[in-house]
Write a structure and sequence with these properties.
- The protein is α/β, with parallel strands linked by helices and 287 residues long.
- The chain folds into two domains: 158 residues, Leucine-rich repeat, LRR (right-handed beta-alpha superhelix) (Alpha-Beta Horseshoe); 45 residues.
- It contains six helices and twelve strands.
- Helix 4 links the parallel strand 9 and strand 10.
- Helix 5 packs across helix 6.
- The structure holds 2-acetamido-2-deoxy-beta-D-glucopyranose (6 copies).
- The site of one 2-acetamido-2-deoxy-beta-D-glucopyranose has 6 residues, from helix 5.
Length: 287
């Protein structure tokens, strides 16, 4: 073996390694076939040097608390983004503005607090959205998914949600699966509309046994079909009660009007009589 053989083969090995791992794979991540996988690396921040042609980015089980919209937008071909089990916080509005091709987005097991129209409105191709297991997620705006018309699989299980407006999901033409279980649903008369939609839609609700009312106390732990019957009954009888009040009011008004009319008629009669008798007296005086 020549003395220069060893370093030469070493550098060749190094070159080969570089080629196989990609030229700029982020540290602590593995890269192959347009996929970057950084699972479970205790990353605090979004990794730098992600290859720009990446299609699939997996950041699962890290400590990332912020997704930079600009850096994300460099990955214009991204179709699959898995950020489950991180520390992503409340303000995700306009974060996904540059990744319009995204089809799969997993944000479960994070710390989201709300979803507005601006959160996902640029993801026109989104098919799967997982935002389950975000215990501080308390509000989803009515039109939050208005632009996600391809949405097929939506999971909002195990969050802090108490209410979901029917219009939020009713108009999604491709929805097939909707996770709603283990939320603290507030079953008031506004919720009846949602439950009625659930009964009539052909969407699949996984873990349906755990879709239950939490408040009011009288309906606690009641599952959705049973809750529908209860709500239907109590909300409709309340309507009847309102009707009774209304009818009583109308009756009272009619009664009052009648009394007033009789009273006015009485006064008129008295005045007329007094006037007539005065006239007679005057006539008598003239005689
Ligand atoms: C990503 O890497 C983790 C472990 O490093 C592995 O368990 C997981 O299957 C990988 N994911 C994909 C989609 O390759
Ligand atoms: C990441 O978060 C976990 C749980 O919140 C914590 O136990 C761990 O110390 C964090 N790691 C780093 C490197 O911050
Ligand atoms: C989650 O968000 C809430 C409200 O924004 C904040 O108070 C809390 O510290 C966050 N939790 C974690 C683990 O980051
Ligand atoms: C919502 O979708 C419409 C039509 O597809 C599009 O014109 C509009 O720009 C989208 N809104 C946002 C905020 O991306
Ligand atoms: C039902 O509860 C939701 C959420 O708490 C609330 O926004 C809504 O106004 C309530 N509707 C009625 C009729 O009380
Ligand atoms: C359903 O709820 C019960 C009681 O809260 C819980 O023990 C069970 O693990 C839940 N099932 C699933 C699949 O989450």
């Amino acid at each position: 073996m020549s003395p220069s053989g060893r370093p030469w083969s070493l550098s060749l090995l190094f070159l080969l390694e570089m080629a196989s791992e990609g030229i700029n794979c982020p540290s602590r991540c593995s890269c192959q076939y347009l996929e970057v996988n950084c699972t479970g690396q205790q990353l605090q921040e979004f990794p730098v040097d992600i290859p720009l042609d990446t299609r699939q980015l997996i950041l699962a089980a890290n400590n990332v608390s912020y997704l930079p919209a600009v850096e994300l937008s460099f990955l214009a071909d991204l179709v699959y983004l898995d950020c489950r089990k991180n520390l992503l916080g409340d303000d995700l509005d306009f974060t996904f503005i540059g990744v319009a091709k995204l089809v799969y987005l997993d944000l479960s097991f994070n710390n989201l607090t709300q979803v507005t129209f601006s959160t996902f409105s640029h993801l026109l191709s989104l098919v799967v959205l997982k935002i389950s297991d975000n215990p501080n997620l308390v509000a989803i705006e009515k039109d939050a998914f208005a632009n996600n018309t391809w949405l097929r699989h939506l999971d909002v299980s195990r969050t802090g949600l108490t209410f979901l407006d029917t219009s939020t999901i009713r108009d999604l033409p491709n929805l097939r699966l909707l996770g709603l279980s283990d939320n603290l649903w507030h079953c008031n008369c506004s919720f009846l509309d949602f439950v009625t939609w659930m009964m009539e839609s052909d969407v699949h609700f996984p873990d349906a046994d755990n879709i239950t009312c939490y408040t009011p106390a009288g309906l606690r732990a009641l599952r959705m079909p049973a809750a529908e019957a209860q709500l239907h009954f109590s909300c409709l009888t309340r309507l009847y009660k309102q009707d009774y009040v209304f009818l009583c009011l109308v009756g009272f008004c009619i009664f009052l009007a009648g009394t007033m009319a009789a009273w006015l008629a009485g006064i008129c009669a008295v005045i007329y009589e007094a006037h007539a008798s005065k006239g007679e007296e005057e006539e008598e005086e003239e005689d």
